[in-house]
Amino acid sequence: MIDTHAHLGFKNFKDDINEVIEESLEKGVERIIIPGSTVHESREAVRIAEENENIFAAVGIHPEDAEGIKDFSEIETLTSHKKVVAIGETGLDYFYLRGESTDIKKKQRELFEKHIELSEKLDLPLIFHNRDSDNDFLEIIKDRKVRGVVHCYTGDWDFAQKILDLGFLISFTGIITFDKTGNLNKVIKEVPFDKIMVETDAPYLAPTPYRGKRAEPWMVKEVIQKIADIKELSFKNVEEKTSSNAKEFFGI
Length: 252
Known about the structure:
The protein has about 250 residues and is of the alpha/beta class.
């Protein structure tokens, strides 16, 4: 199993990160990708990856920290580390923006563009964050020559098709184990098997039956099992395919 998105650099893990990593490896997690969401957390991702053979880092600034654009040069510097395999997470997030938010949206778009330019320059894949911003997201990314994955996918099949048409992958979290809309079931049924990856987004979104607890990388097994159930495949089949997709995408 490969957890392609776990925020092990967050303070939620500061007291027991070594135990969390050890338990996840013992329970079958082969590799973990730690994404960056600020400059500090990107540094932490690189540090943890440097100390653990099975862990890799992505570096970037989350759209909700758009003010962090002033420190973007540090993200560029971090990409030179051998354990950095992607840029992100990056994208747009309009979920909390209401009314007089034009300036904030502009800053998010500018920050997103910087990540895309860095990806094009270095040929590193992008980890996309997209929430309540579909139109602007597609407008910015549609003509760019980059590889990417939309992490924590919660959209419908119509938007998924647009993502797939651009050649991007889609990554699913524990949300699929408690989604009541039925949208994600349809997406999972329809999305090509070679375009799927899995993640926990730890410490958030713990899957059923661990709702309310801190998510940890080993819980990605529940995401794999749910995909297997929906696609009527074996756990082993989904585990092997999502892992090979991740290895190819991140070059690990």
